[in-house]
């Protein structure tokens, strides 16, 4: 820097020289040698079987901008850092010393190249990830004694009004169980499934009797139903309800309190997106 003195105003001005000094490329390994995650990712990718990955690229075609193995290392490392956008990965390739270390003076890929690579390895991803996990387990980098859930909720593609609640099902099931026990004067300790078996037996007997006696079923106003028809319809209604209650409870299992009629895997829960601000429960996973 040069200092210029203006004697008339008694002010010193500092003149900055804008000339940029030509510099040699630095050794990036010096700056990343303590990055354990980077070393781990690089080491794992070098150890897994990448035969299928190399087959994706034709030996006679245009040479890829970045070696596929290096590209996989970059993708895995960026994902581990929470970087998923192709443009953000592109930016990291240009300015992050850790990615520059992986590139080893190769030309940084642009977002289009990154996206094309990800599309090519979609079918290979499960096998590659499985190999990486096996190595991590072998190296004792993963503790299998615990399961971690990040709390992510994915909204199901199901009607938000198709809910079935465990509490309601159990309440109506119990009421019907007590009603049937009183009607047939059964043992009060019978479970809903045992009561259902009794209803099925009686229903089959009534159905058979209706056929044998050639009972003509009538419907509509002014029609008088035969007692066997009344019994048949009542038993059929009980049987259908008990089977429905039992089916929904089996779908929910022991750890869910709801399910959707349209998607049995979905559970109703509150989502982050609540546009109506009313805390509406939606089917989700």
Molecular structure report:
This protein is mainly alpha-helical and 285 residues long. It folds into two domains: 36-139; 163-260, no CATH class. Helix content is 49%, strand content 8%. It has eleven helices and six strands. It has helices at residues 29-32, 36-47, 51-55, 68-80, 86-95, 97-103, 111-120, 125-138, 166-184, 192-212, 227-252, and strands at 2-6, 11-15, 163-165, 258-260, 267-270, 281-284. A two-stranded antiparallel sheet has the order 1-2. Strands 3-4 form a two-stranded antiparallel ribbon. A two-stranded antiparallel ribbon has the order 5-6. A hairpin with a 4-residue loop joins strand 1 and strand 2 (11-15). Helix 2 (36-47) packs across helix 4, helix 5 (86-95) crosses helix 7 and helix 9 packs antiparallel against helix 11. The longest helix is centred in the last third of the chain and has 26 residues, at 227-252. It is elongated. The two termini are 64 Å apart. The model has no long low-confidence stretch (mean pLDDT 86). Residues 32-120 form the Transposase InsH N-terminal domain. This is Transposase InsH N-terminal domain-containing protein.
Number of domains: 2
Apparent shape = elongated
Number of H- or I-type helical stretches: 11
The mean pLDDT is 86
Q: Report the count of strand segments.
A: 6
Q: Between the first and last Cα atoms, what is the distance in angstroms?
A: 64 Å
Unreliable sequence segments: none
Strand content range: 5-15%
- H-E string: EEHHHHHHHHEHHHEEE
Main sheet record: 2 strands, antiparallel
The rounded Rg comes to: 35 Å
